[in-house]
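ugh ok so i messed up the first submission bc i forgot one of the chains. this is the corrected input, ALL of the components this time, i swear. 857 residues overall. if the numbers dont match what u have on ur side tell me asap before i send this to the collaborators (the ones from the other lab, u know who)
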Amino acid sequence: MEKITQRELLPGVRLCCVQTDRLRTGTFSVSFLRRLQQEDAAKNALVLNVLARGCRAWPDMRRLKAACQEACGAVVEPEYRQYGEILAAGFGAAFPDDPWLPAGSRNLERVIRLVSDLCLDPDTRGGLLRNDYVLSERQNLRDRILTAVNDKPTYARIRARALMCADEDYGVYPLGSPEEAEKITHLILTRHYQQMLAVSPVRLFYCGALPFEQVRDTVLDSFLTLPGGEERRMPETEIRDSAAVLRSETEYMDVEQGTLVLGCRLGGYVAPQEQPVLEVFNRYYGASHTSRLFRTVREQKSLCYSISSGCDRHKAVFTVTAGIAFDKRYEVMEAVLEELDRCRAGELIPEDLEAARVSAAAAYRMTGDKGGALDSFYLGQELLGSSARPEELAALALEVSPEDVIRMAQRVQPELDYFLRGPEKEAEA
Amino acid sequence: MIPREFAEYGLTRYAGVTESGLAVYVFPRPGLQTKHALLAVKFGGCDLRFTIRGKWKDAPAGAAHYMEHKMFEMPGYHAAMKLSAAGARANGFTSSDKTGYHFSCTEGFMEDLEELITFVSTPYFTEESVAKEQGIIAQEIRMREDQPGRRVRTELMKALYARHPVREGNLGTEESIARITPDLLYGCHESFYRPDNMVLCCAGNVDPESILSLAARLLPEKPRRKPPERDRGEEADLAPVRVRTETEMPVSMPVFLLGSKLPFVPEGKDWQRRLLLAELSCDLFLGEGSPLYAALYDGGAINRSFSAGVTDFPGGGVCCAGGRCRDPQEVLGRIVDAAETFRADRETVERFRRLQKAARGNFIMALDSFFDLCHTQADGHFMGFDGMESPMIRSGLEPEEAEAFIRETFRADRLALSVVRPTESGKG
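and heres the new structure output, hopefully the right one now
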């Protein structure tokens, strides 16, 4: 059985420790919680990539990689995770846990030291982040932002979100825009970095065999130079009601397959106790093999290969995405809305609802078998104001009633019907 | 079931074979909630010419993948839906050498396993259902055609190989799948979906003996016919058919993949050693910790999308490197130049030893992924080697072998370059 301990180590700095001897892989991460906003997004992304180029102890990628290899193949990477309009920006590490290595390996200590060096002790010139690293990573970031277009379904979701939430921070692309990236100098980035360290709430996570006290002591020792004195204020996500009407947008690209995205809002905050209800509804409606959308749109009508629904409980936004032929847009959209109406009207299929319950419960339970999944889970719970564990949510999922699901379906308000498709002429041919 | 303990990893593997010839491997992992099963069939995208009842047959490209889709359909129900209804996460995949059916669950493992073995061993193909699937798979094919990473790989294989079926891709084309009929699928099922051509791998808090008993009960019959023969068009020539291939897509900057064919080595331990050497050599030469990677990255020729590795398939394998960059030809040129002068000097030897240490750590971490664990076991079973022995074999490799491999593999006359260039509409 795992032991979970969560403590505030310093003002605004919390450590969540999951002690378990069941896994071979240890997980450690540090996240600086930032509000997602246009003026900061590119800076947040860029600063991590610059830090990942090297620190004083390992000033370039070769030596940094050598340090990871010495830590028995530890994988240490910049991480950006989004929870509504909150961005958890930092570094995540996966490494072979100490019990599976020769005695005295102290691998966790190595990894924590490596991550803290990357975060807190960069290789600077005159107190500023290295200009050559900033220029090189700025170009890479610009290229990476533009690369979003390469993955069409993801690009369609990004565009749908930007259009639906045009005047909200949620519509901002987490990596920022090429124009914003272009403006960043090493001076601007150093200031941003210092501000990030000083005022962002910090979340540390560990999952592995070692006890809380040992992890806490190592963390405190390694993160001692984290600046103090200023208040670390928790960012928040703004939740909006739905627009009154469903609007339609179409964009064109030279693609073989169209991507349809239906963007919806849940009309207000998702309370912690409603999480299992949303999870069960999502699986019943569109996120499983027994979902209404899979059964009808794919299996009965053969209209697509992929169709699924998803939700961001932090922003109370719900989406459906489908890869379809260009001429099937209205047929698919009609089927998607028809199935939603059936849920709202209470026309539920008991066996499929039970399938959604057990599938949601199993998914919660499986979370406990992966360090990375537990990291995201516990951070997500904290941001929702919940202290529930995966097994508790699994038990609650099994108790979700048809009335709960109907109420959740009635909250889903379609707001944007977005279609990314090929040129008009090709579709008509 | 015969246990074999891997003490340094705290893992025991149980192995057994049913009377009918089905190989069963089980990795018990008490304490974890997830339980996983993979039933794999040695029939993949590269099996396009084979015998059915002793007669040679040419199958349309995409036949194994089409079969994978249709196997879930049972008389009166859909197996994936049934497993999903029980809380399991079920899926299938088709690679160049095999088709896999798998599920993960937390409860009801034995019932789910019974369903898995039952549906994989029950062929049920009607004219209507086979025709219906064409629309779905056509959408899957179009989805893949929009993925530059897929496109660049497909074109690279066509540039490297003149006849090998890896040229065709596992999904086939809309034209080729239109030729698939229920008769063909029944023939493929009879030839390949037989216990002695399949392997069952399970991991989690499960009981090995119960699994073997269940498999023996559900698949009791020993196949009467000989296993099918296959023609996978092995090629001896290591030179590519074309040195460069280019296509256009809506991408923001060029996407590229370069590759070099591995010499053919028959399945078995020699092939395993060859693959491990190829992987380690790629990492040594082109991995993040290499001088070449640093020089290319620092000069802006590549970015973090760049990676190198080995892809293997029946009768062959390719060392690949690629990503997104402005000038793929320049990257290729730098790689060829660096390979010519590559030496196992002291720094390289130190790095080689570090990579061996890191690879052992990565192997330990991979034991937490039941999908990877079962997949590796199935791969080894079909290819005649034991994946659990990989760390030991890897630790026996020497830097001088890597030097020879790199100098030989990344020669200009061995490499082909595949590039997807941006169309006007894709430029940012």
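quick check: The radius of gyration of chain B is 22 Å. that seems consistent at least. Chain B touches chain A through 73 residues (CB under 8 Å).
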